[in-house]
Specification:
Number of helices: 1
Shape: globular
Structural class: mainly beta
Low-confidence stretches: 114-143
Mean pLDDT: 81
Strand order of the largest sheet: 1-3-4-6-5
């Protein structure tokens, strides 16, 4: 039986994208998105509870995210979960779960009201070289899901 590691989220950016480059020149963009979950409080009233997710976007897609996205912008993310562990400078073990984006969809209109030919949504396909980026930044390529 094959394992499936797939995440699909729609939320809003909580800060502006952070673009960096690996030593070999591959772009890597960090996003943080908030996704609300509906739940009841102690009094039985429904309310929104925010969940925050760190997202990494590689290659040309990452450069597009850094260029066109900003804090508050709604986005759709399709990707996979990646768990990391490292030793902090103070010697403690740290760990994090992040989303490695395969695709990022820009939702809503442009904030400045420009048309740009993209309409209400703009789809940014994953860069072909994202899975083969530096070994320091990714765990390798995934097999295609057979459906």
């Amino acid at each position: 039986m094959a394992n499936i590691n797939r995440v699909v989220l729609v939320g809003n950016l909580t800060r502006d994208p952070e673009l960096r480059h690996t030593p070999s020149g591959t772009a890597v963009c960090k996003l943080r998105i908030a996704v609300n979950t509906r739940q009841k409080d102690a009094q039985g009233n429904w309310g929104d509870k925010p969940n925050y997710f760190d997202v990494t976007v590689w290659g040309n897609q990452g450069e597009s995210c850094a260029q066109f996205l900003s804090k508050g912008r709604p986005v759709g993310v399709d990707g996979r979960l990646d768990w990391r562990e490292w030793d902090a400078q103070d010697g403690t073990k740290r760990q994090a779960v992040e989303i490695i984006a395969d695709t990022v969809q820009f939702l809503g209109g442009r904030p400045d009201g420009e048309g740009g030919g993209g309409g209400e949504r703009q789809f940014v396909p994953a860069a072909a070289t994202a899975a083969s980026a530096d070994a320091d930044f990714t765990s390798g390529a995934d097999d295609d899901i057979p459906f």
